[in-house]
Amino acid sequence: MERRIIHIDMDAFFAQVEQYDNPKLRGKPVIVGGRSFNRGVVATASYEARKFGVHSAMPTKTAHKLCPEGIFVHPRFERYKEISNQIKEIFLSYTEEIEPLSLDEAYLDITNLVDRQNSARSIALSIQSEIFEKTGLTSSSGISYNKYLAKIASGMNKPRGTTVIDYSNVLEILHQLPIGKFPGVGKVTEEKMFELDIKTGKDLYDKSMSELTAIFGKRGASLYNKARGIGTNELTVQRERKSIGKETTFNYDRNDDQEILLVLENLSEKVSERLLDKGMVANVVTVKIKTGDFETHTRQMMTVDPISSGPEIYHYAYNLYHEVKDQDVPIRLIGVSVSNLTKPLYRNLTIYDFIL
Ligand code: TTP
Ligand code: MG
């Protein structure tokens, strides 16, 4: 089945965030990076600064020379991370099939969202406008039938671009693409390509598989395929591995099972409350103890059914406690957590539903 993959990449990400947060910087050449004149490098530059030839990884010193009126700003990674999370939430509201590549770019597999009313392009445009509405920032998107083509496409009409590569235009685009723009071709490979007189996708296309494997080893085949529009469409999706946990540290080491289990029951109840708050159910329970000499031990168990109530969590925690606790060794900390969390699509039926 033909996949529809979108690659979304924020425009001049760090610089745009700085311009958004500080309106005085808007429309100006902003250069984000290390401000140390001798050792700093540029993380990124606003499009206004790029006109002067400033780009990522360039020494700050060079950027100063090229763009004397540039405004140099120190990066604020916490802020970028915050916005990155906001953007990720927007992606997740469209599909769970997402593969983030860095703070400012991700692949989305939107195959299942495409129908008669919604083309892949219109979905990409709608994601981009939603990002703009919620964060004030612009992005570019590329749409294709595999990952690396989507990534190439998103870079073709930056900033604020939306570009489709399909079977009708793929070879034309790849043939004229500078070799350094192929994902996976970094500076070193690019140099090697130049030595072989391979400057564009067409030059690469003209090489045989055996020539390329002789020069590039195992990567030869992948390069051969990349010149032809062939690449993987499988996303590496990070399933949420969130967990919810509570723990207590005692003010003295304890060894009395009754006492400890009372605490564990209490903690289970608190974990349940937070789980219910989120409207989620769990499939794994973990118990953690720390002994008096600071060794940590954990045990975990898959639940038979997804669980959420305090008594259910305690049921598993109780058994795990007896597995992990050495009768003769007092402990200073006990904790319980649940993980493998999901939102139930419908309420689980219980025996009471049948009685009624
Ligand atoms: P990119 O997406 O490569 O660049 P960009 O978003 O600044 O610009 P473009 O419009 O061309 O996509 O990288 C995203 C962020 O990662 C960038 O804003 C800053 C950071 N970064 C570095 O810190 N060092 C680097 O060498 C690069 C390339 C990026
Ligand atoms: Mg970017």
Question: What's the topology here?
Answer:
Layout (H helix, E strand, L loop, with lengths): L4 E6 L2 H9 L8 E4 L8 E4 L1 H4 L9 H7 L4 E3 L3 H18 L3 E5 L2 E5 L10 H16 L3 E6 L2 H10 L5 E3 L5 H7 L10 H9 L5 H5 L3 H8 L2 H8 L16 E12 L2 H21 L4 E10 L4 E12 L2 H15 L6 E9 L11 H5 L1
Parallel strand pairs: 2-4, 7-8
Antiparallel strand pairs: 1-6, 1-7, 2-3, 5-6, 9-12, 10-11, 10-12
Helix pairs in contact: 4-5, 10-11, 12-13
The structure holds thymidine-5'-triphosphate and magnesium ion.
Keyword list:
MutS, DNA mismatch repair protein, domain I, 22% strand, 356 residues, 14 helices, DNA polymerase, domain 1, 4 domains, Alpha-Beta Plaits, five-stranded mixed sheet, binds magnesium ion, alpha+beta, 12 strands, binds thymidine-5'-triphosphate, 40% helix
Evaluate the radius of gyration: 27 Å
The shape is elongated
| Count of strand segments | 12
Classify the secondary structure makeup into a structural class: alpha+beta
GO molecular function: damaged DNA binding; DNA-directed DNA polymerase activity; magnesium ion binding
Site (Substrate discrimination): 14
Protein name: DNA polymerase IV
Active site: 105
